[in-house]
Amino acid sequence: xxxxxxxxxxxxxxxxxxxxxxxxxxxxxxxxxxxxxxxxxxxxxxxxxxxxxxxxxxxxxxxxxxxxxxxxxxxxxxxxxxxxxxxxxxxxxxxxxxxxxxxxxxxxxxxxxxxxxxxxxxxxxxxxxxxxxxxxxxxxxxxxxxxxxxxxxxxxxxxxxxxxxx
Length: 166
What we know:
single chain; 166 residues; alpha+beta; four-stranded antiparallel β-sheet; 6 helices; 16% strand; globular
């Protein structure tokens, strides 16, 4: 349904030909991509989206957008401040995530938030650059890793361990 909606939006044509063409092309794309679900790209990999808690996802997306907006204002303040009070930090920490998809979502969520960039993800270990001490502390003491873990496992609690800041 999302692909059909996207097709209709992007084509802007609502006649029989364009709708039929869209349905045929969406069916073709789904037919071609369906076998990819069963391919294991990594050792012990499985299709993690089957475990996704959609209720938690509905709560997570607005929360992430609000974090992005707040961090945007904080970075704008840093850039516009005459003294540019930037204190860059590298943060290395380990996480206890239920699967690879949760780690990727966490890394991308960190990078989407202005002022922080995930530099490396190796196994359970993240290396993140933060513009300020506060951004670094919010990363390891904040809610983001726990909220991402709860997208796949509602019983997840504290997931960050072995924190090193430099």
